[in-house]
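Lecture 7 notes. Example A: sequence first, then its structure tokens.
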Amino acid sequence: MRRDAWRWFSALLFIAAALFLPGKAKASCWEKAGNDYGIDPLLLKAIAWKESRGWSGAIGPRLKDGNRALGLMQVNTIHLPSLARFGVRREHLFDPCTSQKVGAWVLSDCIQRFGATWKAVGCYYAGPASTNVVAQVAYVRDVKRFYEGYRRQALELASKAPAPAAGFEGN
């Protein structure tokens, strides 16, 4: 009986570790991608939520130009020739950390073109040459809503965080 309880406890501990440890690793990927390109990681999360609802295996429909959007950040395959110079291949876009970094790279290109504006976020969706303003405005509206939600969550978590312990003043 005792051995069965230990096995159950061990299995439960393993499942808990599998569920919670990757979340911390993923959080650091958001931070790194954001820091590398000077972009708020919460904005990257909002774009990812709009693009794939957080699914790293997402594959978008074939577009008129024959390309597709892949992975968590739904990176358009039109970028593959440029990414190949950095050793990034199609299958790498299904890795969440790689997708986050490449998504930040794409967004940073749009920011260089249009400034740190919502137009840059529209560019992420439609591409820099797009004239489809209606689609960009609708996309930006959704991303803004998700971004505000992530920011609100971050503020709530920060306000609930325990105060730092007072320093120990021993003799």
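Example B, a different protein, same format:
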Amino acid sequence: MAKRDNLKSTTSVIVDLPANKLDLADWIVHFPNDEYVACTPATGAHKQMYVYRDGDGDWVFRNDESCGGFVMTQLYRAEIMEPNHVFLVSPRTKGRFLGFVPMTFQITWNIKVEPRDDNRSTFICTVGARLNLLYFLAGLLIRLSYWTEAHLEEETPRFADSAARWATRDD
């Protein structure tokens, strides 16, 4: 179970599909690495993403990325995998502050789709972190919340487009 985040940012975009047409759980397990990397074209923040099953058959999502001076490797586990809601937790994200100070902290990735009207939905992406006091203060100094919001603003519309393409692949 995820601990409560002390840093959190949310972005949403409108998708021109009804919410019941999108299946986030199916999309994310089929999200290819090259498409994940392409979701941050301006910053190049996304380095790689691999989805696989562990020995117990549970999904694991390995993401390598950078944001606001932190280079991170996340090993997410699913707490919620539903068509309209995916909640992933990386309890021991490995990171490097400014590229060289080693850190370990929790990251959460929460993706939802909600109906907007009969033909459109809202795709909502929230990223949270549970930072200890020292990391939290360092994050304030480098304006980590600003960089996290900018990162979400870059990736969320592309995630939504990818999920929509996956939902209509057989149409």
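Note on Example B: The mean pLDDT is 89. The helical segments are 24-29, 33-38, 133-141, 144-167.
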